Amino acid sequence: MAKELNEFIAIALGVCVFINLVVIGICVYIDISNQMKNRKLYKSAFVDNITLLGNENYFKENSKIFLNSGRENNYLISLDINKFKVVNNLYGYDFCNKTLNILGRKLKTGIPKNNITCRMYSDVFAILVEYNGDIKDVLEKIHNDVSTINVDNILLHLNISMGVYKIKKSDRDINKILDKAYMARERIKGTYSDYYYMFDEALENSLIKEENIESSMEEALENREFEIIYQPKFFTSNEKIAGAESLVRWHRNGETIMPNDFIPLFEKNKFIIKLDLYIFEQVCKDLAYWKKEFDADLKVSVNVSKEHFMDENFIDEYIRIVDKYNVDKNNLELEITESATIDKKIDVVKIANKIKDLGFSISLDDFGTGYSSLAMLQELPIDVVKIDKIFVDKADYNSNKNMINYMVSIAKQKGSEIVVEGVETKEQADFIKALKCDIIQGYYYSKPIKEKEMEKYFMQNDKSLV
Ligand code: C2E
Ligand code: CA
Ligand code: CA
User: Fold this and answer.
1) How many alpha carbons fall within 13 Å on the CB side of residue 344?
2) Rounded to two decimals, what is the model's pTM?
3) Which end of the chain is more exposed for a tag (fewer CB within 10 A), N or C?
4) Ligand 3 centre and the CA of 404: distance in Å?
């Protein structure tokens, strides 16, 4: 009996040990696979799979630790390869990835040890480095290290631009630090004589100017500091008014600020969405007033920044305003820039079709400057093509004539109306007329004018009144 009991205990113990071992085995397996999963997750969240350097997330996370570690003489270098697209077109995608990989390794190993080197996006790298000597020595070394690299036995000459910012003790926000290095880099992008630019007082001042604009824009909108002016457009056939474009001016402290000094910033911080809607509302108000007072039937074009297109339903707000003022949509044309058509994040064909379906006309602004493809143009439901001013500007028309002719033929083939912008002289106007473009907008006929001044066109439809 005792023997059987002992045997039973031994078997039971054996089973217990076995079960324990299985449980431990399962736990270890789960732990290892969790670790692997975590490593995979970490890799996808923090590692750039082309260069195997850290990615933008990694850079931002780790630079905080780097900056808090009490090191002095820290620099942020933002590096970009000039015309990398050409390499891409010439040698293809895989070759470019190899190039980026080799470049990444050279950067990481060629600079002083205390550094964080990451690929931020496409061909842009960021380097955070501590260096107690003259930083120009580091920049020169980077330049020499990477100016010629061997990829698949092809000797590639890389032309780089670096923006450099010396980090201050008071700098805490890595995004702001990155912005400063980017700004410095932008200064020399495309100039092949210099390969680096140090963030300096001039850039600091333009940053302060931007901050001033940003801190006052909301209040400016409330205080009605933004004014809408209209630039009339004229038919080439009879020189009568064909419509007008609405343009914004900002009146601040007795000064008039021009759109080029604030629109790019408003596009960056998205305030343009509010401003464009405000302008659109004022235009609708003016159209309703002109209709009531003068029975005017004028077509006004309004600039719509591509920032709106990030929200596919943006047009609902435009419809709401049109309905509020009971304006005929035939009197409105929305100007979208050609550059919006090449933004990969935007399905511009879908958006344009929606705008058209709702009854607005669409005009393609700055045509000829955006490098959009012909295929894309064929798909877009455009009523008007606006040929950019730069083609009219050049004094030597012969070299530009072919280009304008080509653009005119594309527009005509699509059945679009052709507007030519920026016509300043009789000579230019005659040239445009000879090309049988439909409409001219430019100082030769009229500069942008105040809304009250527009009334003269409704009383007598004659451009000689200007
Ligand atoms: P844009 O849409 O290409 O507008 C035409 C610009 O060319 C206007 O400059 C106009 O005043 C100028 N212009 C017209 N004819 C001539 C000419 O014969 N000679 C010269 N030198 N210039 C001429 P402006 O008003 O300074 O506007 C600059 C840009 O700012 C506009 O270029 C447009 O992109 C943007 N913008 C203006 N108002 C608005 C707005 O309400 N919303 C948005 N999103 N952008 C706007
Ligand atoms: Ca425009
Ligand atoms: Ca334009």
Assistant:
1) 0
2) 0.75
3) N
4) 15
